[in-house]
Amino acid sequence: MLKLASLAALLLATAHSVSGACTNPSIRKPWTALTDNEKHDFLQAELCLMETPSKTRYAGSVTRWDELQALHVAQVQYIHTTGSFLPWHRYFMTVHESLLRSECAYKGVIPYWDEQADQAAAPLYASSIFSAETGFGSNKTDEQGCLVDGPFVNVTNNLLSEFTRGPPQCMMRALDQAQFDLVAQAKVDACTDASATYVDFNACISGDPHVAGHFAVGGIMLDVALSPADPLFFMHHTNLDRLWWVWQSRDLGARLTDMGGINVGVASILTEAQPKSLTADAFVPYFGDDVDNVTTLKHNLWVGDILPNVTIAEVMDLHSDVICAEYL
User: Fold this and answer.
1) pLDDT of residue 66
2) Fewer CB atoms inside 10 A, N or C side of the chain?
3) What keywords tag this UniProt record (predicted)?
4) Distance between CA 18 and CA 244 in Å, rounded?
């Protein structure tokens, strides 16, 4: 009877969170749940973004894919180790999806990399996401660490962290099993179970479950600013958003409005990566919080005119008009 009561309460809370305008949520599925045709269509859409000319030309962007990367580079110090880390990346996943659909006519589901399930099932290199035929390329690389197979073998990046353009750099990876083991479900459960507040959960999940996911892939995913150059970035962060939603769903009544943290990251890796020409003042009106250097629901999430800027309050609910998504 107690279990039934708990289930009823959860269903009631979930129903309460669904916006009336969000009647057709975007479906997000683990990569392993997609058919080979669905995987092909998604990968082709990603390649399409890499070839579609930039519309904003922001920070010297040449393609729509460059624009996504430039957004991340521009504010690396303000979207990592800060209160806006999870909300900004949640909206960033929506920006990415919007471009796939508007620029490349993608009509399929949005996949995520269920790293916890893959870590429990098999070695990292054996994950289907690294299939040369139906995935993002195998763990095989040449002597420079460049991919030698898969759909992104000929993709190059030349956007640098100061918005200059360097020589074309191949897509690089260096898979690391020891790092991948740090994304295990037990690590996630520890964050979910022990975190009573958003500040606690954000600090915990942005540790091993987040960082180790980047380090497990290696290559450009190791770069705190330039990592969105690898399409696995979006697979990884969509999963991270799913984990935040799992935590939120345990107490939606309280956690849809639970926010906090600092606005400016102070770690040296962030201050060194932040473009020197772009301080917080460059995003005015950016923060929008009532208290100096404290993240609130009023905090603005800047996405460079690809989509309208929104506040954290507008993305807290996965079923909001702005996000309107559902994880399966």
Assistant:
1) 95
2) N
3) Copper, Metal-binding, Signal
4) 17
Stated as kind and residue range, the H or E segment containing 131 is none
pLDDT digit string (tens) for 80-111? Answer: 999 999 999 999 999 999 999 999 999 999 99
Give the up-direction half-sphere exposure of residue 283: CA atoms within 13 A in the CB hemisphere. 24
Where is average pLDDT lowest: 103-107, 233-237, 290-294?
290-294
CB count within 10 Å of CB 43 equals: 19
Query: Which residues are within 8 A (CB) of 207 and not within 5 positions of it... i.e. 6 or more apart?
Result: 191
Residue 9: the pLDDT is 39
Instruction: Compute the residue count for the chain.
Output: 328
Cα 170 from Cα 220, distance rounded (Å) = 9
Three-class secondary structure of residue 222 per DSSP: helix
Mapping DSSP to helix (H, G, I), strand (E, B) and coil, where does residue 166 land? strand
Distance CA 237, CA 251 (A): 22
State what percent of residues in the chain have pLDDT above 90.
84
Domain assignment present for 11 = no
What is the CATH classification number for the domain harbouring 165?
Answer: 1.10.1280.10
- Answer yes or no: is 257 within a domain: yes
Tell me which residue range forms the domain holding 74.
24-327
Please check whether residue 135 lies inside any domain of the structure: yes
**Which distant-in-sequence residues (6+ apart) come within 8 Å of 295 by Cβ?**
82, 83, 84, 259, 260, 261, 262, 263, 289, 312
CB within 8 Å of 236: residues ≥ 6 apart: 113, 115, 213, 214, 217, 221
Element (H, E) at 281: none
Task: Report the interhelical angle of 232-249 vs 185-194 (nearest 10°).
Answer: 40
- The β-bridge relationship of strands 325-327 and 26-30 is parallel
CB neighbour burial string for 192-227, b if at least 16 within 10 angstroms, e if fewer: beebeebbebbebbbebbbebbbbbbbbbbbbbbbb
